[in-house]
Predict the structure of 1-phosphofructokinase family hexose kinase.
Amino acid sequence: MIYTLTPNPAIDYNISCDGLQPNTVTRTRDAVYTPNGKGLNVSFTLNHYGVDTAILGFFAGFSGRYIVEGARELGVDVHPVWTEGITRVNVFLNAGPDTEYNMVNSGAAITDADERAMFELIDGLEDLDCLAISGSLPPNASEGFLRGAIERVRARGAQFVLDISSPQLADLLGLEPLLIKPNDDELRDIFGIDVHAGDEESVAAAMAELHARGAQNVLLTLGGSGAYFSNGEHIWFANRTFEVEVRSTVCAGDSSLAAFLSMWFSERDRVEDALRRSMATGANVVECAGLGDFAHVEEYEKGIEVRLVK
Ligand SMILES: O=P(O)(O)OC[C@@]1(O)O[C@H](CO)[C@@H](O)[C@@H]1O
């Protein structure tokens, strides 16, 4: 079973308007509220592709209950650690073509006791094969929380996947994650490495450094410009050959990671198919507010080019 850990879940509130002016009333439309957070998005996508998955996270208040109930209604089991306060509501505003405002709140604080409750939960997961840890940490999370969670996963002989923007990523690579999914911004901010689609020397050097630091496999996503995957021996590049109308880029990275994992976790030799599914899924998700229904993925897979770089 692939469990996901979302330390800082959120209700995503997607709305649209035509332009945004200060000091005036803006009438918005198309409001969509969905239970989210990066790891939840991974679980929902894995579930869509028929992979057994369950959600771990800290949840609080009415919004926490909405997310837990919403996830269960979508058919994914949740093991919540209930905390004080109110789980955040993040606001994603589409104000016109190519104009997105992403307002991401800090979230409900957690305590040492909440962290211990999460560790006990992880210790008790009999069927844990892999824990995918995604997203930000809530206020008051201890410096050692992620390391503590990962050490418990490793003690059970399971693997872990990291999709985090925290500078802690540099340190946690030493624990040898099965897979990391940085984007170009995270590589620059955390490791001081610049990469660009098409500049394959810089990509190969970046991959070599990430492997040397401990990452077993790397899925490097570059938004609409494609993605590179490296297993330490070979590097592949995948990109789409068709245009999509972007409604919201929120959730695209999470769904791309999950779509990749949904195939590659159990069939490591199907890198090219996994990349095709990953890119097609991301392309479909940007057309929707939230994750959408993945209805165009099969069709989009035909328009994804994958080539071996090295
Ligand atoms: O603050 P974090 O945890 O980095 O990001 C949270 C978040 O923006 O990420 C997801 C999209 O990737 C959204 O569902 C969610 O609101």
The first helix runs from residue 38 to 48. The two ends are 32 Å apart (CA to CA). DSSP finds ten helices and 14 strands in the chain. The chain has one domain: 2-308.
